[in-house]
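We now fix the convention by which a protein and its fold are recorded. Think of the row as the fold of the chain written in a discrete alphabet. Here is one such record, which you should read through line by line.
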Amino acid sequence: MQQYWSGSAINKNKGMVEHLQHCGVIKSTKVAEVMETIDRGLFVPKGTPPYVDSPMAIGYNVTISAPHMHATCLQLLEEKLQPGMRALDVGSGTGYLTACFALMVGPQGHTIGVDHIPELVSSSIENIEKSAAAPLLKDGSFSVHVGDGREGWPECAPYDAIHVGAAAPEIPEPLINQLKPGGRMVIPVGNILQDLKVVDKNSDGSISVYTETLVRYVPLTSKEAQLQG
């Protein structure tokens, strides 16, 4: 819920990444590299300042998260986004974070984005096609689908990394089931104010959960409830 800067003084993607490094949000070279390579400016609505550290409305009563939240989630999931691993992004929205995942796991890995708004899925694919992740979309290692993210995407499970971009009242059981032993899920849980939960599945299938920080996300709900706001 913190904002690290505001206004339009930062007008380049590289400047946004450097500020996140300076603020201590980005701690690893890999996360910095992927956020420099996937330009956030390709994924925000036209006419909005893309590099401000703030969530932005993208229509359909949803937002693209602030850059510091994207960086936080990438840091938390970095070890599970190694080349050849599998990643699922629930509520993939504009496709920005999903594209970052795809770049990290590479063509030997597999990245799935799921959103229940068909128009968002279509526009996210257009965004991705303009980005450095476009070749992965073309070769089939990266895909975005229309679906109810609360059910995950079982066709490509299990996943090393699962990210949920909307707040659930509790952790959906299908997502726990689709997490690989040794895998990690990052999900906001709660109602008006939420905890960003880090869910680790141990080698024996048991679950360990801890809270990383306090956040505020739109709710993970049905398509109908989302469109009604």
Residues 128 and 134 are 6 Å apart (CA to CA). The domain at 68-228 is CATH 3.40.50.150 (Rossmann fold). The helical segments are 13-22, 29-37, 67-77, 96-105, 118-129, 134-139, 173-178, 223-228. The first strand starts at residue 56 and ends at 59.
